[in-house]
Write a structure and sequence with these properties.
With 422 residues, the chain is of the alpha+beta class. The chain folds into two domains: 91 residues, Alpha-Beta Plaits, CATH 3.30.70; 299 residues, Rossmann fold. Helix 2 packs antiparallel against helix 3, helix 2 packs across helix 5 and helix 8 packs across helix 9. The longest helix has 19 residues. The radius of gyration is 24 Å and the shape is elongated. The N terminus and C terminus are likely disordered.
Length: 422
């Protein structure tokens, strides 16, 4: 009898231990996180391994909840990512807390890793300036895999193979960035060679075809993320379809004298009612249009901070995901297109972050797809001599709130998307 009692006690103790065992891993994204940027890489890796990840919107900075495993805990330790272990009871209590209709929180299940591509001239030329591309830097740092494409892949129709496309700081107008400070002769020749190969007489015509291919990708259900001049010049090229807006400085023939009046803003994604910049702009060849709210200052130092808006995690799920952060006041950073003039942003675009006089972070939908435009070049960037930039070492900025916005966009296509109500 005593033996039976002993066995029963051992069985009961074992059951209690099993119940108390950690069955979930919480990756906090508040100030207790040792490396915010690499935490996104953990989430992406688990999605790529066909595991689900719960994104806890507005809970401790937008934390992640994942089924526990020894491999997960090891991966977090190796990458220097903070984590906490939860029992089933603790995880259930947390979900109940988040589900309370009176709190601005939500659980969004991420299901599948997006196939990521970055549009960059590093595919075909040295492109030293683009070694400082913020998205390339943060994807590499977070250990999130990606492929690189350029004009030729888009012209061949390869985009539908992928889910998420980032545009580097490109000039889609065919004016080679309007500055030799950022475009090498090798870059220009590479674009001219592609245009010739595909039967275009000018680079501007080829770039328009590329811009239309990007818009078609987005309309068909793809997700587009663009920063700096990539966002601005994409819309300029779309609005100027069939109109020569390129001066003889770049293609040997003059621009249409009536180009401004012929722009069609119905063809753009985000911007309207903008005025093209002539060759007498800042430093002669730097700005494209007055979409850029800081065009007159060019590469001057940023003026202060911009603020993220607070969205309902239960009703405005998409912008809530895209603004998850441990900080909501973010220092401004510069670029060829630093910020977007408020009156140039279409009413259909949702502003998610703004400065005192400009919009910095905007979102929109077209067809079955979505896009996000983010002003500025590098959230933690600094310049070397002249306008040359030095690559950012993200080991020095593992908590960068500006870079977190980029990585929010990387995870967004993995969510069960819900339409926003406001």
């Amino acid at each position: 009898m005593k033996r039976h009692v002993s066995l029963w006690l051992l069985f009961s103790i074992g059951c209690c231990a099993l119940c108390a065992r950690a069955n979930s891993v919480l990756i906090p994204m508040d100030d207790r996180q040792a490396n915010h940027l690499k935490a996104y890489g953990i989430a992406y890796k688990w999605l790529k391994d066909d595991q689900e990840v719960d994104w806890l919107l507005n809970y401790r900075g937008g934390s992640f909840l994942i089924t526990s495993s020894a491999a997960l805990e090891t991966e977090c330790r190796v990458r220097g990512v903070s984590f906490e272990t939860l029992s089933d009871a603790q995880a259930a209590s947390l979900r109940q807390q988040i589900g309370n209709p009176d709190v601005n929180m939500n659980v969004v299940t991420l299901q599948k890793a997006a196939k990521i591509i970055v549009y960059s001239p590093v595919k075909v030329s040295p492109s030293e300036f683009e070694n400082t591309d913020a998205v390339l830097l943060v994807l590499t740092y977070a250990e999130i895999p990606y492929e690189i494409v350029y004009d030729e892949e888009i012209l061949k129709g390869d985009l539908p193979k992928y889910d998420w496309l980032h545009l580097h700081h490109e000039d889609f107008t065919g004016q080679f960035g309007r500055s030799l400070h950022r475009m090498t002769l090798a870059d220009m020749k590479a674009q001219e060679d592609i245009a010739k190969k595909y039967g275009f007489s000018k680079v501007s015509q080829m770039k328009l075809a590329v811009a239309k291919g990007i818009k078609s990708f987005c309309t068909g259900g793809g997700y587009l993320f663009a920063m700096c001049s990539g966002a601005e010049t994409l819309d300029i090229a779309l609005a100027a379809e069939g109109v020569d807006i390129v001066s003889s400085s770049y293609d040997g023939d003059g621009m249409d004298a009536d180009a401004q009046s012929k722009l069609d803003f119905d063809k753009t994604l985000a911007f309207q009612n903008f005025t093209l910049e002539g060759d007498n702009g800042y430093r002669g060849f730097s700005t494209f249009s007055d979409i850029n709210a800081t065009g007159g200052r060019g590469y001057d130092q940023p003026q202060g901070f911009f603020q993220l808006f607070d969205f309902s995690a239960k009703w405005d799920v998409i912008p809530a995901m895209l603004t998850q952060n441990h900080e909501h006041i973010i220092k401004e950073f510069i670029g060829q297109t630093t910020a977007f003039r408020k009156t140039a942003v279409k009413p259909s675009a949702l502003v998610m972050g703004e400065g005192k006089t400009s919009d910095r972070y905007i979102y929109g939908e077209v067809g079955r797809g979505q896009w996000t435009f983010y002003g500025g070049h590098d959230p933690e960037g600094t310049r070397g001599g002249g306008s040359w930039r030095t690559p950012t070492d993200l080991n020095l900025h593992p908590h960068s709130p500006g870079y977190r916005l980029i990585l929010n966009n990387v995870l967004f296509p993995s969510a069960r998307k819900k339409k926003r109500k406001t």
